[in-house]
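From the methods appendix. Each design record in this collection lists the tokenized structure first, followed by the designed amino acid sequence. Records were kept in a plain field format so they could be parsed without special tools. The example shown here is representative of the layout used throughout.

RECORD:
FOLD TOKENS (222 positions):
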């Protein structure tokens, strides 16, 4: 397991479809690696804005911003994919995300809602990248961070569980070349979506590296 490299790419590195393609080239070396991605640059700020409008009960403004984000991402995927299959699969995935964001119009807005909204940036970028690598014919798997990046009751990462989950997962899916996961997002001890605060993607990469006793963690920034 010591041979597994952990590579982390920040928001600007995956900030445009072209940059995503560049990252795909960088990571497709034939060496196994785990790749931690941030949200596309600007996405988290827009999600903060959406959550803020919902919090102020200004649903109309929130839904307008969501529609703007939807337009932007629909343009991104037209530039990223060249096959109808990859485009269709990612479009369906995005439509579900935007429906989910709109659904907060009907809820009593809580801190848990806010954190769930903020998590969508990383969920979108990692799905886009996974589908792109699949389109290129690369053996890739997406490991949802929400499945293993858990916090204990005192808000610290549960390193024992992180290690156990990842070790088992990698053993079961050994045929994979590239494993993609989300930085920043996690679940707290109550099972709610939470985050590792800003700068959390570097922290995610380090926690994964420590869990797998990796020989190398590369933090890529522009």
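DESIGN:
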């Amino acid at each position: 397991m010591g041979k597994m490299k952990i590579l982390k790419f920040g928001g600007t590195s995956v900030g445009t479809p072209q940059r995503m393609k560049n990252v795909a080239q960088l990571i497709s070396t034939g060496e196994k690696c785990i790749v931690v991605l941030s949200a596309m640059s600007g996405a988290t700020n827009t999600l903060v804005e959406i959550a803020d409008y919902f919090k102020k009960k200004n649903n109309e403004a929130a839904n307008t911003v969501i529609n703007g984000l939807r337009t932007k991402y629909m343009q991104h995927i037209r530039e990223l994919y060249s096959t109808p299959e990859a485009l269709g699969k990612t479009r369906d995935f995005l439509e579900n995300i935007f429906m989910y964001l709109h659904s907060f119009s009907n809820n009593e807005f809580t801190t848990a809602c806010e954190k769930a909204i903020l998590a969508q940036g990383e969920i979108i970028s990692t799905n886009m990248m996974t589908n792109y690598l699949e389109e290129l014919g690369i053996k890739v798997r997406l490991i949802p961070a929400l499945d293993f990046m858990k916090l204990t009751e005192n808000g610290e990462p549960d390193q024992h569980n992180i290690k156990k989950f990842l070790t088992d997962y990698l053993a079961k899916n050994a045929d994979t070349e590239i494993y993609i996961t989300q930085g920043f997002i996690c679940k707290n001890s109550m099972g709610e979506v939470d985050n590792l605060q800003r700068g959390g993607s570097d922290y995610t990469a380090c926690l994964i590296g420590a869990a797998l006793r990796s020989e190398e963690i590369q933090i890529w920034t522009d």
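APPENDIX NOTE: Strands lie at 5-9, 33-37, 140-142, 178-182, 185-187, 193-195, 216-220.
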